[in-house]
Design goal:
112 residues, 0% strand
Length: 112
């Protein structure tokens, strides 16, 4: 072979394009109402002692968590519902204790 033949440019090599691969985007669903119910339930654990404001927050947390149970994912809605139910039971026990204490105090003063 001569020097000219080895230095001749080679024709361009065409590469085959890789096959089309679809891009799959997984959208993670969220439950905004259930999350709001959970957050409000957590806030009422700290503010539940405030007489009217805390009581209203317990009920709002319970309602939002219950509505959030209708959507998926339900994890935070269930947690908010449980926290709200425990809080409302606690609220009823405290309210009952206050009513019975007032009742005992009025019967003790009326017998004197």
């Amino acid at each position: 072979m001569t020097e000219q033949e080895t230095n001749t440019p080679q024709p361009p090599q065409f590469q085959q394009q890789p096959p089309y691969q679809p891009i799959i985007i997984n959208q993670q669903s969220s439950n905004g109402i259930g999350t709001a119910g959970f957050v409000i339930s957590l806030v009422t654990l700290l503010l539940g002692w405030i007489p009217v404001f805390g009581w209203v927050l317990w009920v709002v947390g319970l309602i939002l968590s219950a509505v959030g149970m209708t959507k998926k994912p339900r994890g935070l809605a269930i947690a908010g519902l449980v926290i709200s139910l425990i809080g409302i039971v606690f609220l009823l026990v405290i309210f009952g204790a206050i009513v019975s204490a007032v009742g005992l105090a009025t019967t003790a003063t009326s017998t004197i």
